[in-house]
Amino acid sequence: MSKDSKFPTGIEFINYKKVKPFWTKREYQYQQLVINGFAVQRETLPDAQYKRGKEAIPKARIDIYYDTGKGIGSKKINGYEIFVYKEAIEFLDPGEKTELDKQWKQAYVSGYFNYDDPYCKEDLFSYKSSSSLPPWFYFGRAYKKDYPSTGKATEKKDWSYKKDYPLRDLFLTQKIDAKEVVEKKDLSTFYKHIRGDLELTKRKALEYGAAINVAPQSLMFEPTRIIIWGNVNLTHNVTFSKEPNFPEIHTTGSIYFPKKFETVIVPSDLYRVDVKAVKVKSKESIYDGFVAYYYETDKVSDSANNKLCLVREWKNKNHAFYLGIYQIYGTKKRVLNPDPTSENKIIAADVDPDLVAPIISFTKPDALEADKMLSKNLRDTQKLGTLIREEEKNRIKLDHHRKLILSAADKVYKARQDTDKNYKKSEEILKDLSKKQERFDADLQNLLAKFHYKEEKKEADKDKANLFSKYLFKNKEGKEYHFEPIELPDDYELPKEKENKIA
């Protein structure tokens, strides 16, 4: 802090409301404050020079609003812009700083600084020089004693030639070391460019831009901003309940008027008076926060097929607007969803457009706010159409393969069913054949048994006949007589001695 002020050097006033003053990170963290938002006011350099002299440094004010858990509190910082900015970002996380940087740059474009506010004082304090100041501010020369009455501007035109370049803000917000950009011998010229004392040429802008990897035009000119006239959700329907019985429903991919309008930077190489912008607002979409730029037209572009476009058609006595891949297939026209992750692949299946405007840039504003462009043209963006078509073809192929697989599986299932049926039939036939074989074997055994029995009986009958012919029919002289065998009764029994002999 300065010796003659209770506030840090370069700060004229800090006002805390419903928040305890804090100067260290521990004091800040102890209160468990949650940032709700910022309000930024900035003075332009030409205005500062007109009001206070050619060596004047612009002032700024930043109001930081917190959720304290017991209501909304605030910290309001007023003073020279570099010190105000430095004080405001002291305990911010990267996301909070990015949001502040966005509003900081936008505030400078508007050039709004309210001197009627009791905390925005016109009178300057007599601060001593500080080693923490960057050289291009020349703060050591900014003493009140260095402002003779003759040094005060009498006419605004005297200072109108003083230009402001985004280069100054870029080096303030990004904390870029000047020695990384230019050689030591060129530092003086570089500081003059930042200060605005020396006009930044195209050649120098190219040199500086190449060194810090930003678009050179973003170093020369404050970006032009336009209103985002419409929002679009690429994953879900959007419903507004203006009247309970008559809700306003906007389908996936259809453009609707936002409740609150916002502005967006237009890349300098794309700017024309007829450039328009719509923004994707869809948390589940990979393109959430992206802005689509197009040139206003009243016809269907000849080169719009299979490209990301804004499409308009007359529907239900009103104009309906869509953002998507415009595609002509056969005699019909449709709008495809540019987000390949969305479940809603087709935004409008059959449209009759009266306006189709190709999107010339599809990018995220945060990149433009940081003085970097994600895409200067739509070469990469228009690849979306190719990707969508490839995805559709792949999806058709997958469906075809799936149908083939299902058909093959169905055939396999039916074949398995037929096999099971045939197997069961085979088992039944086999069982039947086994039973028939068993019956055949039994019948065969019976036949063989009967045959053997008959054969044995014949042999026995023959033996019986032979025995009787040998022993029963002999003459007295002992000579044998051969007679025809006689039939003996079945119950006839041979004498035992004869049976033994036969056996």
Task: Explain what the structure shows.
This protein folds into 3 domains: 161 residues, no CATH class; 60 residues; 138 residues, Umud Fragment, subunit A, CATH 2.10.109. It has a 9-stranded mixed sheet. It has a 4-stranded antiparallel sheet with strand order 1-4-3-2. 27% of the residues are buried. A hairpin with a 2-residue loop joins strand 14 and strand 15. About 11% of the residues have low confidence. 34% of the residues lie in helices and 22% in strands. With 503 residues, the chain is an alpha+beta fold. It has 11 helices and 17 strands.
Strand residue content: 15-25%
Distance between the termini: 148 Å
Encode the helix/strand succession as letters: EHEHEEHHHHHHEEEEEEEEEEEEEHHH
Domain module count: 3
Extract low-pLDDT stretches.
Answer: 122-162, 370-381
Task: Give the structural class.
Answer: alpha+beta
State the strand order across the main sheet: 9-6-11-12-17-13-14-15-16
Total of helices: 11
> Helix proportion of residues, in percent?
25-40%
Give the CA-based shape. Answer: elongated
Determine Rg (CA atoms, Å): 52 Å
- Arithmetic mean of pLDDT: 76
Count of extended strands: 17
Largest sheet report: 9 strands, mixed
